[in-house]
Amino acid sequence: MLLLHWRIAVASCKSGYQHDVALSLATMASMLRDCGDRDAATSYYARALRIAERLAAADPQHSGFQRAVAAILRDTADIHLARGDEQAALDDCTAGLRIFHRLAAADPSNGGHQRDLVACLGTAASIRVARGELREAMLHYRECVSIYDRLAIDPNNTGDQRNLAIFSVNVASMLDALGEPGSADYLRRANRILLALDAAGKLHHRDRNMFADVERRLAGT
């Protein structure tokens, strides 16, 4: 029995070590991507994904292993999209999205899982826009807004508030592009958030153009 427990402990340590290796490789890949070396980044992501998928297959109930696979797939989708390979981007992002949806559904109160899902939905929406699939993009953006609504996010959480404003604007833009009604409601919601951030001195300078655009579009409604 002691030998069995020792073997289990060793196996557990090995899995944890391999997980750390996968995360380190993915981090290196992200750094290379940000530096513009997409080929090297792709190679590191592929190595990380092989390890993560092996761990996830061996322990399907381990949310950390499952999340690692989904996160790497989402990041590789970004690289494919930057290269103009929209189908490969969609394939990887869709695979990651399935995992993130499953994790979020299994633990609805886990804000981390919900935000992971939002990030992947945002990537999926960008891919859909690049493919001219505006309705699908709009549905992804709308799901992001719904997730933040379910989270009942803290008004003092600047990051969440900012993201909710951005996704609201994106829904409005897709509705306008599709010639469908309802964009003004999303713009007004975004405007309320941006006004509150500005009044609190928390509106980032890079968001001021978005703020001005929202107010301009509302003035025209």
The count of DSSP E runs of length 2 or more, i.e. the number of strands, is 0
Largest sheet: none
The SS-based structural class is mainly alpha
Alpha carbon gap, first and last residue: 73 Å
The percent of residues in helical segments reads: over 70%
pLDDT < 50 stretches? 1-12
Write down the overall mean pLDDT: 91
Could you characterize what this model shows?
This protein has a domain at 153-221. It has nine helices and no strands. The protein has helices spanning 2-34, 38-58, 63-83, 86-106, 111-130, 134-151, 158-178, 183-199, 208-219. Mean pLDDT is 91; it is low at 1-12.
What's the gist of this structure?
The N terminus is likely disordered. It is built from nine helices and no strands. It has a domain of 69 residues.
List strands and helices in order, with pairings.
Layout: H1 2-34, H2 38-58, H3 63-83, H4 86-106, H5 111-130, H6 134-151, H7 158-178, H8 183-199, H9 208-219
Helix pairs in contact: 1-2, 1-3, 2-3, 3-4, 3-5, 4-5, 5-6, 6-7, 7-8, 8-9
